[in-house]
Each structure stands twice: as C-alpha cells, then as structure tokens.
Amino acid sequence: MSELGWTDYVLPSRGVLYADLLPGGKVQIRKLTAKQQALLVTQGGGNLGKIDAIIDTCCRLPSEIKHKELLLTDRFAILLALRTKTFGSTYTFRWRCRCGQWGNATIDIVKELDEKAGSAETHEPVEVELPDAKCVVHARFLRGTDEEVVARNAKRMVMASNDNTDPSYLQRLAIQLVSKDGQEFANPLERIRFIEGLTVSDLILLEDSVSEAETGIDTRLFLDCNNCAETNQIGMPFTAEFFRPRSASRGPRDDRDEPVLPGLPRQRVHPKRRGSDDAG
What we know:
alpha+beta, 8 helices, about 30% helix
C-alpha cells in the first residue's frame, strides 16, 4: 500500500517557543484513516489518550521533540488542520441562542477562524500585576504534558471530595504559575492555594493576560439568530459532526442532547475583538 500523502503545516507558534527544536514551526500532517476514525468512536479509553494517539500518528515532528511537549494551542491547531485535510474546511453544527432557539450554522474553518501567529516578540513567562493581591506573578503557557497532570490531579480531587465543582479550571491556571514577586512557588499545593485565594477580578485579569500573549487559533464565532435577530458570541462547538461530518443532503446531527467532544485542548486566545461590547 502506498504511503498516505503528507503535507506541510505551519503551527501558529511558528516554533518560537521550542528553543530551535521546531524551526519555523513546520510539521507534516496526513488525513485520518479508518483506524483513527474507529478510535474516536470507540467507547472508553480516555479522550485525552485518543487525541494523543491521533496527533502522534497523523502529525510528523522532528525527532528532537515529542508531540506532548507542544503547546496546547499548537496541538489544537493540529486537530483543526487534520479535520480540514480529511473532510474539508466546511463545518456545520447546531447551536443555541440566548433566547433558547436552536439553529444550524455552517462555517469555513480556514477562512473564519483567525490565527494569532508567533513572532520575535512572543515570549513566556508572561508578567501580570494583580492589583487586589498586590503582587506581580509570572505565568507560562500550557503544554500537552500539563493537560495530563491536570486530568490526573482533577480526578484525584473529585474522588477525594464531595464538591461537584470541576477542579480542572483552577488546576490549569495554577500549573501555569512560575513565580510571585520574583520567588518561585515551592510546590503545586502552594500554587493552587494562591489561585484559590485570588479575587475574581484578579483571576480574570491573569487568565486574559496570558491569553492575549498566547499564539493560536481564535474559535470565537458571532452568529445571528433567525428567531430574535440577536448576535451571539459563542465558542465554536465541537460536536460529533467535527470528526464525523454527514453529507450536506442529510444536514447536521441533532446535537442538542449530545455533549461536545471532550478532551480537546482548551482555547482562550483572543487576537481581536468585534466591537466594544462583543454582543455578549
């Protein structure tokens, strides 16, 4: 059997944060095969593990770097590129307006999702002054290896507590912390306690500051409702349609009762804003 066609793909980071291990951010990708499709639809096995397997088999990297060492934003971009190469850039999905009305939307992944590319000015850690905490912290960007740690710690915390709150959100922010007022955090517990003690305004400032500095794909969409005519800002939903698109004649699946695909790298990149209030 002939080798599947590999094509070049340039990561949003442009490789600037990998210490010359990934020149220009260039990797190679190929289409998903039936084997990867079967992996996606198989029950169990862990969604993060499935995503790791897909990136590992459908994306070629230089031997000096492993796919789990990539920035989460680059890993996410690879998934978008794999979907586009395999099925094309058109993506149809169902979404819900604030008024409660469900509707269909079709976008072009390539044309309608903005990329914030890395440059010589891209750096980490990011310095953030927190006014309520009266301190300056430095935070780095997340890697694939971090997502494994977050998932493991979050599962442990859920099993040990009666609290129904998802701990992964604060875990992700905590693992990004490098230092406070020039002093490195002594251990992970010190990081999480610091995050838990922040005011909401400081927490949002930290999250947004890191997001603004990060490279990646902005998945925010601005969709108009046919029922109330309002414009909604939403994050692009990752339904079953993303990696299992139906033919145009059949239309999108009814995803009102289906959860979004779990385990996808989290996106918080905001390269540009639409208007002053973003319809939100």
